[in-house]
Amino acid sequence: MTQFEWPEPPKQSAFPVAKAGIPFIFAASFLTAVFALLGIDVLAIPAAFITLFICFFFRDPDRAVPNLEGALVSPADGKVVAVESLPSSRFMAGPCTKVSIFMSVFNVHVNRVPCAGTVREVTYFPGKFFVASLDKASADNERNAVTLETEGGKLVCMVQIAGLIARRIVCAVQQGHELARGQRMGLICFGSRVDLYLPEDAAIGVAVGDRVKAGTSVIGELR
Fold first, then answer.
1. Domains in the chain: how many in total?
2. 202-222, pLDDT tens digit by residue?
3. Are residues 82 and 150 in the same domain?
């Protein structure tokens, strides 16, 4: 039977939201209140729905993480749009495997650490804002790469990629940080993608079209 653990203390809230979303929620709530007080229902009602959607978008549920040796958990909620072997990449030297996960605006957008390790490098790349489900988004879009080194010396690189609507990537970790599997490490606002670069010998347990959840879905294993 699979055992689970909490990588972080659960939040004391019935509906936890990510800190990065608080300014958006406050702004939308303020506008809604102004329109309502002025009696402009034609604006107040849509603004109220927008406020509720923003709260929904920035939801940040606690996640219990499978306690399985060598397991890789999904770094994002969404749909697997690519699983491919690469002879090389700018994020990992030599052959590697890339797993890409697309997050629609309806998915939880908080990103989580796929495996325990030490942050060796955090690199930001400016870029464009193509639809994140397209393959060219991996190379052309704005992105932020976090490279982890496991206790066994394996390197894993997680790349946060902005999408068509997204204009902000939040990364809460820095070089030298020790991270636990399933721990929160950032988010991407309003539709985006995460690419995960793994060692060539990693066992992959997902396929294109699979739906995964950050921190809880096991997507592979480090050997």
1. 2
2. 999 999 999 999 999 999 999
3. yes
Q: What is the dihedral of CA 133, 162, 191, 217, to 10 degrees?
A: 70
pLDDT at 223: 86
Residue 53 lies in a domain: yes
Please classify residue 199 by burial: count the beta carbons closer than 10 Å to its beta carbon, then call 0-12 exposed, 13-18 middle and 19+ buried.
middle
CA-closest candidate to residue 132, choices 108, 158, 156, 164: 164
Query: What does the pLDDT read at residue 88?
Result: 87
Mean pLDDT (10-residue bins), the chain, 223 residues: 83 84 93 95 95 93 92 96 92 93 92 96 85 72 93 94 76 95 91 91 96 96 91
Domain membership flag for residue 112: yes
> Do 162 and 142 contact (CB within 8 A), yes or no?
yes
Non-local CB neighbours of 177 within 8 Å, separated by 6+ positions: 118, 119
Amino acid of residue 171: C
Q: Which domain holds residue 182?
A: 68-221
Distance of alpha carbon 65 from alpha carbon 44, whole angstroms: 41
Q: How far apart are CA 26 and CA 11, in angstroms?
A: 20
Catalytic residues: 192
DSSP, res 59: B
Does residue 2 lie in a domain region?
no
Q: Are residues 44 and 91 in the same domain?
A: no
